[in-house]
Amino acid sequence: MEPTVAILKSLADASGAYSFKFDFADAGASHYAKTGVSLPEASLESARNADAILLSAMGLPSVRYEDGTEISPQIDLRKELNLFAGVRPVRIAPGQKSPLKLEENQAIDFVLIRESTEGLFYSQGKGEVTKDSASETMMITRQTSEDLFQFAFSLAKQRKALNQGKGELTCVDKANVFRAFAFFRDIFDKEAAKHTDVTAKHAYVDATALWMVTKPWDFDVLVTENMFGDILSDLGAGLMGGLGLAPSADIGKHNAVFQPCHGSAPDIAGQNIANPFAMILSAAMMLEWLGLKADNQQMIKDAQLLRDAVDAVVVDGKKTTRDLGGSSNTTQAGEAVMERL
Q1: What Å distances lie between residue 205 and 174, 228, 334, CA to CA?
Q2: Distance between CA 72 and CA 29 in Å, rounded?
Q3: Parallel, antiparallel, or unpaired for β 247-251 and 168-173?
Q4: 172: β partners
Q5: Using CA of residue 53, residue 54, residue 56, residue 58, what is the dihedral sign?
C-alpha cells in the first residue's frame, strides 16, 4: 500500500486536475485478534462515504472465526455495499514473460467479471453440516443478475471506445447441467437484446478454462457466477505470471473497492519484499473508474500511464521482485514504477 499511495499522490500533484484525501481504516484478521471485530462499524462507514476504497491485501490463516472460516472483510464489504461486479483484468504486455508460448510481442487483454455477492458464496458461514453430509446453497437472483449484465455490457462498450476491446461479451455458465445457470443465461439473453452494438456469446465454464490457456487472445469481456469467477480469475493470474500482477475491483451502483487479487502472504509480512505491482495496477483501475465517473480525462490518461509504467518495469525485468525472477524489494519496485512515470 505504501508505494501505491506515494505514486497516486505524485500523479495527482503533477496533474493539477485532481487531488486525493486518504482516510485509513482498520479491518482484518489482526484487528479481529485484538478486538473480536473484523470490520468495525466506523471503518464500514468510512468506506461507505468514500469516493473509492483502496483495500489492502487481506487474510491471516492462523486467525479464524469460531466455525473455522477465515476472516474476510473484503467479502463483508462486497455484501454490505452490494458490490456485485467483480472486475478481474487479464493483461500480458508485449514482451512480458508468461507460462503461455506467445508469438513475439503478442499481447493478451481481456476482462473477467464475476458476480461478487451471491452464487455459491451466498451461504458463506451458514452452510449446513451434519455427521454424514454437508451442503451449501447457491443463489442467483434476477435483480442482481440484471445489474451484473448491464454493467458487463457497459464495460464491453467502454473498452471498445477506449480501444481496449472489440465490443464482445461472453456469458460463462453451466446451463447444460444446472437449472440455476439456465436461469442465469436466460437473463443474459434478455439483456443482450437491448445491446445490439455488443456481440453476445455463450460458453460453458469448463470449455472456458481450456480456451483461456489455448486461445486467450480470442476473449474480450467474460461474465460469470461468483465461484466460477473466483476460480477462473486465478487461472487468469497464472497466465500473467502470478497473483503479484493481478489487480481487481468490486463495483456496485454507489461504491467500489480496488485491491490486489492476492492475499496478505503472512510468511513474508514485514520484510519489505512483497510484490507491489498488483496493488499499483488496482490503483490504476481506481483512477480510470473515478475518471470515467467524474468525466476527468486526466485521471483516465494517468491510469493508462500507470499501467504502461508497470508493464515497462515487468517487461524489462531488471527491477522486479523475486516472485517475478528479480531481486528488488517492495520499495525499490515501487520506485522503479515512479521512475518510469
Answers
A1: 6, 7, 36
A2: 8
A3: unpaired
A4: 203, 224
A5: positive
Contact yes or no for 111/221 (Cβ under 8 A): yes
With beta carbons less than 8 A apart as the criterion, state whether 282 and 336 touch. Answer: no
CA angle 319, 325, 327 (to 5 degrees): 45
Q: What is the pLDDT of residue 61?
A: 84
How many angstroms from the chain centroid is the CA of residue 339? Answer: 26
C-alpha cell at 317: 525485468
Q: Do residues 341 and 46 make contact, with C-beta atoms less than 8 angstroms apart?
A: no
Rounded Cα gap, residues 69 and 91, in angstroms: 32
Is the pLDDT assigned to residue 69 strictly greater than 90?
A: no
Q: At what angle do helices 226-240 and 205-214 cross, to 10 degrees?
A: 10
Domain annotation for the chain: domains and CATH numbers? 1-79+257-341 (3.40.718.10), 82-122+137-253 (3.40.718.10)
Does this model's pTM top 0.70? My answer is: yes
Q: Which of 273, 279, 275, 274 is nearest to 261 (CA)?
A: 279
pLDDT at 68 over 90: no
What would the grid cell of residue 115 be?
458476480
- Whether the pLDDT of residue 83 is over 90: the answer is yes
Q: What is the pLDDT of residues 102-135, one digit of tens each?
A: 888 889 999 999 999 999 988 877 888 899 999 9
Cβ atoms 209, 232 nearer than 8 A = yes
**Neighbouring residues of 21: CB distance < 8 A, sequence distance ≥ 6:** none
- How far apart CA 3 and CA 252 sit, in angstroms, is 27
**CB contact at 8 A, 156 and 168:** yes
Local confidence band at 207 (pLDDT 50, 70, 90 cut-offs): very high
